[in-house]
Amino acid sequence: MSTQEGIFVIDLTAPRKGRASARSVGKATKRAAKTAKTASMGARRARSLQIAGRRIRSERALKSVFLEERGARRPSLFVSSTATHLAALADVAHQERGNLRLFLFEQVSPERKEYLQTLFRTVVSVGGDVDLLGSDELAEVLSADTRGDLFVGGAVNPVEKVLVLYRGSFDRLSVPLTWFQRISDAQPDFADFEVIDYGQTVRFGEFEVATDAILYDFDPEYRSRARKRQLELDGSFGGSLRRLRELRGVRRSDFPSISAKEIARIERGEVKRPREETVKAIAKHLGVSPEELPTY
Fold first, then answer.
1. Using CA atoms, how far apart are residues 80 and 71, in angstroms rounded to an integer?
2. Boundary of a domain, candidates 73, 99, 128
3. Are 153 and 244 found together in one domain?
């Protein structure tokens, strides 16, 4: 991401600072003896608290931060172990949502999700329609400075034939399923999808593709940033051609009107200024415009 959004961890059950009384110690002892269901809820909360971000420890603070971030229209992310904490925002649910996202470490009912979507632009929860990273990997990705350049999960839509991916910023990215079929001879199994390797790889059965390759092809801003990093190494037209050709899985011999030898000469920089007809033919075969080709 070019601009890091704010991240807020909602922790309304955190103990107050100060010396613990005998009564509070007694309550803590009782809490330790609760059921397995309560322990599971505590585990979700613990995972959410592993995420680096500003802690919100009271309903008053939650409402204040929520209204401030919504008014500023910043792309802010709120993380909570449970949707119950969001009840404090019920009286502002009728107002404009702004650019806020919510992630929950618990599954929520469709009815509750409808309510949450009046508050947040994007709502994603564990156990929902989105196939997510495991909780430990998810917490680490959400704590990373580069979380917007990593995927935390996604959902395959076989009707529209598209994969909707969620980045660590919880921005959505739609990728046609045909793109995965085109870049490799291996056949992806769209019924067996998951994001792995701490958000760095998308897997369909035995087929795998790097997150970087997807972002490079479908996010112009990411491509621009990656391009800037690559300029020091190779900013030539030939370098752009080589990167795009490899990204598409195209061999040098696959260009119908240009020899593999000529493609190799261009990529090595031996042809400084290819003819306009050559550039147009290369761009057409790679599925981009002649103007776009040098941006890869």
1. 21
2. 128
3. no
For residue 108, is it within any domain? yes
Q: Which range has the worst mean pLDDT, 19-33, 64-78, 94-108? A: 19-33
Tokens standing for residue 229: 């990093």
End-to-end CA distance of the chain: 18
* Average pLDDT over every residue of 145-171: 92
Q: Cβ(252)–Cβ(264) under 8 Å?
A: yes
Overall domain count for the chain: 3
Domain that holds residue 283: 234-295
What is the model's pTM? 0.64
Compute and round to an integer the Cα radius of gyration of the chain: 24
Tokens 């992806």: give the residue.
188
d(CA 137, CA 135): 6
Question: Which tokens is 161 given?
Answer: 């034939």
- Residue 219 pLDDT greater than 50, yes or no: yes
